[in-house]
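Figure 6 in text form: structure in, sequence out.
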C-alpha cells in the first residue's frame, strides 16, 4: 500500500502539467492558425486536404515534442509555461522562415493540396520541435 501511495504522490503535479499541456496545445492551434495565411481547419475539415493535415499534424507534433522537453526539464510550473511560450514562438518562427525564405509559396501549395509541401512543412515543424526540446535540457 505504501508503494501505491508513494507512486500517486505526484498525481497532483501530473494533472497540473498535463492539463496545462493540453490547454497549451489548444492555444498553439489557435495562434499557429493565425500565423499561417491559410485556414487549416477549413482545409482539413471541409476540403479533406491531405497536405494541410500533414502540415498541421507536424506542427502539433513539433510543439508537443518541445512541450515534453519543457515539462521534463522545468524547475517549476512557471518555468514550464515560459518554455512552452518559447516553443510556440519557435514553431511560428519556423513557419515564417520557411514561408519567407525557402518556400515562399508554401501556403498556396498547401491550399492546392500539394502533399509534398505539407510533408516539407511537417518535417520542418517536427525538426524544430526536436531541436527545441533538446535545447531545453540545460
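Output sequence:
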Amino acid at each position: 500500500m505504501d508503494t501505491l501511495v508513494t507512486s500517486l504522490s505526484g498525481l497532483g503535479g501530473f494533472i497540473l502539467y498535463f492539463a496545462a499541456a493540453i490547454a497549451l496545445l489548444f492555444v498553439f492551434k489557435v495562434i499557429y492558425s493565425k500565423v499561417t495565411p491559410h485556414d487549416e481547419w477549413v482545409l482539413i475539415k471541409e476540403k479533406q486536404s491531405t497536405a494541410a493535415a500533414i502540415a498541421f499534424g507536424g506542427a502539433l507534433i513539433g510543439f508537443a515534442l518541445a512541450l515534453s522537453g519543457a515539462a521534463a526539464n522545468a524547475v517549476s510550473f512557471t518555468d514550464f509555461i515560459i518554455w512552452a511560450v518559447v516553443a510556440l514562438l519557435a514553431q511560428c518562427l519556423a513557419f515564417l522562415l520557411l514561408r519567407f525564405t525557402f518556400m515562399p509559396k508554401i501556403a498556396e501549395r498547401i491550399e492546392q493540396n500539394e502533399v509534398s509541401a505539407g510533408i516539407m512543412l511537417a518535417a520542418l515543424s517536427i525538426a524544430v520541435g526536436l531541436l527545441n526540446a533538446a535545447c531545453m535540457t540545460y
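Caption detail: The chain has a mean pLDDT of 94.
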